[in-house]
Amino acid sequence: MTDEMIPVHEKDAMPFECSSKNSCFNECCRDLNQALTPYDILRMKKNLEISSQVFLKNYTSLHYGPESGLPIVTFKPNPGTGHECPFVTPKGCSVYEDRPGSCRLYPLARAIARDRETGEIDEYFALIEEPHCKGFGKKTDLTIRQWMDGQEVALHNHHNDKLMELISLKNKILPGKLEGAQSDQFYLALYDQNEFRARIFDHDLLSGFGLPNSVFKSIKTDDEALMDFGIAWVKNMLFGIELDIT
Ligand code: SF4
Ligand code: SF4
């Protein structure tokens, strides 16, 4: 049996219900190919009260897109089993409150496109029916949108969409493989947030940019502001787009 991808609309009924009583419980946490986003890492390192350096070293592997040269961060296998996510336990996910966006959406796939006229983001959804997942065929009273609301994925989508737009800009402006130093800048600014902050405040990474104090004040303590700043910095370093921060 192969995976089936079924396009759905947000107002459609959700024909799926996950339960710890299902015989497949935790099966979905064996996929180590899921790419983690900067916001996923921000949330999990906060949950564990560790730095991004420690999180990345202990729990993730770094790969590079063969065609794009973009860094891709995935989970390292659980050291106890040699496979599956490092946070899966017999009782479920140990970082559940801060689990990644892709874990919240599963088994839903989401794609976006920005409307050229209104600038608004249009969303497209599909259900991925994998043979191991026994949650399909259950009757629920929820629409796809209501089900997503229950997964509290809106904030993840909001931040992850900025990454998607940055990648799409890269593919437009710099098609082909990034050079090693460019990939390193991308990784530093988006994934290794504590090191990025240290380079800014301890090694004057931003000297010469003439940024107002208000920017330094917000990125010193606010991880989400630092992540947004990192995207703007990458656009400047890689594409020459003016660092327009006020
Ligand atoms: S495989 Fe599907 S039904 Fe089973 S635990 Fe995972 S999401 Fe839930
Ligand atoms: S983070 Fe949690 S929900 Fe996601 S794969 Fe790991 S154990 Fe499963």
Explain how this protein is built.
This protein is of the alpha+beta class and 246 residues long. The longest helix is centred in the middle third of the chain and has 20 residues, at 154-173. The protein has helices spanning 38-48, 52-59, 101-105, 144-150, 154-173, 180-190, 193-202, 213-221, 223-239; strands spanning 4-8, 35-36, 60-64, 71-75, 88-89, 92-93, 108-114, 121-129. It folds into 2 domains: 4-159, no CATH class; 175-239, no CATH class. The model has no long low-confidence stretch (mean pLDDT 94). The strands form 3 sheets. It has a 3-stranded antiparallel beta sheet, with no helix packed on it. The protein has a 3-stranded antiparallel beta sheet with strand order 2-4-3. The structure holds iron/sulfur cluster (2 copies). One iron/sulfur cluster binds next to loops.
Beta strand count:
8
Please tell me the overall pLDDT.
94
Helices and strands, in N-to-C order?
EEHHEEEEHEEHHHHHH
Helix content: 25-40%
Instruction: Report the uncertain regions.
Output: none
Note the main attributes of this structure:
9 helices; binds iron/sulfur cluster; 15% strand; globular; alpha+beta; 3-stranded antiparallel β-sheet; 2 domains
Which helices and strands, and how do they pair?
Blueprint: E1 4-8, E2 35-36, H1 38-48, H2 52-59, E3 60-64, E4 71-75, E5 88-89, E6 92-93, H3 101-105, E7 108-114, E8 121-129, H4 144-150, H5 154-173, H6 180-190, H7 193-202, H8 213-221, H9 223-239
Antiparallel strand pairs: 1-8, 2-4, 3-4, 5-6, 7-8
Helix pairs in contact: 1-2, 5-9, 6-9, 8-9
The structure holds iron/sulfur cluster (2 copies).
One iron/sulfur cluster binds at residues 29, 85, 87-88, 93, 95, 99-100, 103.
